[in-house]
Write a structure and sequence with these properties.
heterodimer; A: about 425 residues; alpha/beta; Urease, subunit C, domain 1; TIM Barrel; eight-stranded parallel beta sheet; 20 strands; about 25% helix; about 20% strand; B: about 325 residues; Rossmann fold; five-stranded parallel beta sheet; four-stranded parallel beta sheet; globular
Amino acid sequence: MQTLINNCRYIDAASSQIVEGSIGVNDGAIAHVGKKESLPDNYAADNTIDAKGKLVIPGLIDCYARLREPGFEKLATIASESNAALHNGITTIMCSPDTAPVTDEPAIVELIKRRAAATTGIRVLPIGAATIGQQGDQLGEMRTLAESGCVAFSNGDHPITNTQVMRRIMEYSSGFGLKLIIAPQDPWLSDGVAHEGSVSTRLGLRAIPAAAETVALSQLIELCYQTGANVHFSRLSSHRGVQLVSQAKKDNIKVTADVGIDHLFLTEMDTSDFNSLCHTSPPFRSRADLHALREGVANGIIDAICSNHAPHETDSKLTPFPESLPGTSSLDSFMGLLFKLAEDTKIPLPTILARATSGPANCFGLAQGTLEQGLPADLCLVDDDVDWEFSLQTMKSQGKNSPYQGWAFQARPEMVFVNGTALKLNS
Amino acid sequence: MATATQDIQLCDDGGLKHFLTIEGLNKQRLTEILDTAESFVGVNNKATKKVPLLRGKTVANLFFENSTRTRTTFELAAKRLSADVLNINVSVSAASKGETLLDTLRNLQAMQCDMFVVRHSASGAAHFIASHVEPHVSVINAGDGQHSHPTQAMLDMFAIRRNKSDFAKLKVVIVGDILHSRVARSQIHALNILGTREIVAVGPKTLLPENISELGVTVEHNLEKALPDTDVVIGLRLQKERMRSALLSTEDEYFRSYGLTEDRIKLAKPDAIVMHPGPTNRGVEIEASVADGPQSIILEQVTGGIATRMAIMSIAMGNIEKSLSGSRTDSGLVN
């Protein structure tokens, strides 16, 4: 099966510029990227698509999302959430081990893979539990889980408090060449609901200082140095956090990092009217933190942008701010926000897209994420000139806890391919 | 900055509809409350202590957190305005059965209550309730978490105004656990709006929140340094039940550093007044002889509290009536 996308724009890998040309797919893999004239002679497309000048990008890769299944199907399911991902051009989504039962044995990994295969057709890659039952003491079956298909290991939303256990996890995983995902949060300093700053003081909200992140990061970086572990720091929120990761990279410590996409747009000010939809973990911090995170995305200190997707029932947010559950349902706004970031800042679109494609692919050793001959044809044809307004009513995710009601976006996928096969989109 | 917080408590014409926070109100609004309170003082001193302003209205005291003083003065205030009063101690009823706050609220609304007086341990609870009630219901914040306690601040302003004339000439020292104090936050806003010359927040660094100076106060950790030239000294309750971590050394050391003693009060102006929102921890934040001494107006605060709460309740209910009068006659329904 050969598919040819003609008359499209795409990001040229060598120059990082947006250029015009064609993309050919053969047998599920990318067979051609470039001028139509330079197509191989023997290439005879079964199916030719006229992109009409629209943008073809590698399918987006979301390296941290909670899909809630198995165990919390009341909140969301693999089917509902992968559908939301698909409609945002995400072709690979990594799902957290915060399931019930916890993703700590191959049977659960199999279950997730089977459910995923029966739904939209995007790649759902489980993250395995770093400790049994996420209890933070006994090491998880990381090697076995990796053989079953886990791409990385994490204790999810259960921080490991014991530094000796953390060290052992790092040693053990690095021995097998496995990657860890850790959200740096000191559990004692994180006992709060809002960023410690002007807004928390004004509103009397229990506060989480930026040091909750940096204290944990400093410890973890030292342990990485000690153990040689491969650690991906997930969901950075503070400017000092970015600096610490930057220094660790300069010191040749093998760390990578991501930021949750909401943290590139929202700050403590968005909580100033007690809007529980902006109650997140880590909390939205100051304007200066937001700028540092954007800077980190621009210069590559931050390798990836993840969704940090956390769908909740509506009731979980229909309470006073401190009693609401943290997190946003962020898949439905993912592509819109990525393109908006290019509109709102000086960061070039190719750089931003790299943080949601090749960036996470490099962090986790995935084959996808670039338009390169021979790689799996996970592609997205984007209409990046369509004005649409975000509405909770049209969200695909089962969780409607999004803070973006009424925001204006300009990009949405028109076609999505995984392994060269076009997946079905609702109009 | 988002202004929803401030707007939600006002009618379209700018009148108070709910009373959730002092922040965002103007001097005229606060003065109106104080003047109205003044007019109710007479009522409270008469043999028959009732005016019919809230006759036929039902006021529900919704207390999700224990309180004796605040609930009692609200109850008295509502009764003296001729309202029917419902006291609901939610911490031992619905909430413990797993009912959500919104459910509790909708049930009470279905019983045709006209005003909710709400105390809740979560900051923002009163805003949450106000944003979910029907338009004919007024919400009065009787304390939400560590955010706001606006009626307490107004009764404090009332007591200050009765003892000291012009706010613009005053130096006010607030001493104690400001981090956990919704009273202090509300007092600071009210004092600033009324034009107070200088407000000093005093306490150990652990009990003063980040960026507190942005609220319009100067920060001082040494009480002796703060007191000279002071007109009003406000002690705060040391809220031991709220302390979540190692914020203090011993009660003794606290008293030695920040206790309101006779010797310390002498450092302030000779005619300085001493205030405290109560209940006081004698020997921890205030010396008995100061609490009961000639400069203390602590009991006067309580008395003024009834008139102030009467004023706030009648103003809010009156404004809602005014704003709904059109739609009510149209529908012929009286909610």
